[in-house]
Amino acid sequence: MLRTWWKESVIYQIYPRSFNDSNGDGIGDLRGIIEKLDYLKTLGIDILWLSPVFQSPNDDNGYDISDYRAIMSEFGTMADFDELLSGIHARGMKLVMDLVVNHSSDEHPWFQESRKSKDNPYRRYYHWQPKPPNNWLAFFGGNAWEYDEPTGEYYLHLFSKKQPDLNWENPALREEVYSLMRFWLDKGIDGFRMDVIPFISKRLDWPDIDPENFTEAVETIYANGPRLHEYLQEMNRKALSHYDVMTVGEAPGVPPRLANLYVGEGREELNMIFHFGHMFLDWGPKGKFDPKTWDLNEFKGVFNTWHQAIGERGWISIFLDNHDFPRLASRWGDDGLFRIESAKMLATLLLTMRGTPSIYQGSELGMTNVAFDRFDDYRDIETLNEYNQAKEKGADLDALLKIVHQVGRDNVRTPMQWDDSPNAGFTTAEEPWIKVNPNYRDINAKAVLADPNSIFYYYQRLLKLRKQTPALIYGDYEQIDEGSNWLYAYRRWDKDGEFYVYLNFSSEPQKGLPLPAGVKLQLFISNYEPDPSFRDTLRPWEARVYQIA
Ligand code: ISL
Ligand code: CA
Predict the structure, then answer these.
(1) Given the DSSP bridges, would you call strands 94-99 and 191-194 parallel, antiparallel or unpaired?
(2) 28 CA distance to ligand 2 middle (Å)
(3) Residue nearest (by alpha carbon) to ligand 1 atom 5
(4) Distance from the CA of 324 to the center of ligand 1, in angstroms?
(5) Whether residue 421 is found in the same domain as residue 443
(6) Which of 150, 200, 420, 487 lies 20 to 30 angstroms, CA to CA, from 255?
(7) Could you read off the pLDDT of 448-464 as tens digits, one per residue?
């Protein structure tokens, strides 16, 4: 199996708008990130992934790009970017940028031209149809086909109507993409995270979806289109292969059996993907605002299945939250009484699983979901569109607000909590672009840095241990609990080392650990003080990792 830096690294995702505001306008920016590089170095991460920082009207916070070669004015200048990149490299870290090329902004000059007339040279940069050819629904609500006045035709948008889908069938568009990739690669960046990359090749027979089962349509119709792998191989040939960089494709709709088509060695496509197996466990047929319950055995099943599917030939990146999903401690743990214990337990999972871990900003503080009591305080287009639709239909808005508290993307977009001063030290402005989580007085970076027992230092230890332990990176994986509904236990091993990981996914003490017999167990790391009387019992949300001595 290929041994390489991006398998041995840990990613930290920054959502720049919410990370740190350096100039008091209420919006995080690049100089704000520069100010915190030493903080990130202290934590011990290797790769910074920045959510999009390109020029954008911010309909979807930068995932709608109007100039791929310019920095968003609110975030700073190209000079700031260059300084950020060299600051990252000077500290021995790497920088990965977000590549959003399934769609552009409708304010991109390509689209401005494209909509002008049917014979405009940019017409074929997007998908135009005289009539909607199918019943596709957009992720952010409503129809995926939008009528456009100037030419009287419809264009496709899988996300908001300000995010028209690019037409990859057109070789001229593809060359534009490879060229903008080379622009950033030539500046010396270290790779790309690729937004909804499985969606770029469309089914041109335009089949209908089952509107009652949107979640299923993502996999069966939107993702994994007929020319996808041809495009990825071309992208590799024309851009990526000329640089020592890493790629991670965001891969909603990619089932395990197709994974190695994307990331298998010798395919010359991507290095890794982020799969959504666990992220969609609580989505009902109608999507995220139609939540259902999940259980621990399904969750474990996802990790097992993906491990088997990837095997020795491919690689994945492991994440438990990001800028689109609830906070990990709120979603998979207990963000009340056992916030600290469960945040550390989940960190243990993230950093001892096979695959390149990706940490989302604020996890190292144990940040939690937020529950604003008015829709007015929400900023995310997905939430606001859902609200507007519900209002139009006369649906129960209080019920929707509760669902938003549980699943909304603004849960993870409130400002980073740096200290206990007003607005958590994120900004000196009176009002940040989105309100801070009121729990910032207790939960903040200043507090965790002052407490040797904090979540922050637990991450720091885990990061260091992982780096020193090839078995935790390259080693094999196998689940060892037998269908327990509170315990997740697994073994990681290679020829030089063997590790047993025990994770209590419950708020009760639980007895009966499947400990290996006849070997000497040495405690490797735990989120509780060791206590021999608990040898066979895990305390609430306890994580314990043993090494075979
Ligand atoms: O959270 C989701 C929608 O409810 C996911 O399905 C998400 O839309 C999907 O993973 C794609 O996400 C990416 O592309 C979107 C952008 O809004 C997200 O922030 C980005 O991560 C469109 O660019
Ligand atoms: Ca700012």
Answers:
(1) parallel
(2) 5
(3) 324
(4) 6
(5) yes
(6) 487
(7) 999 999 999 999 999 99
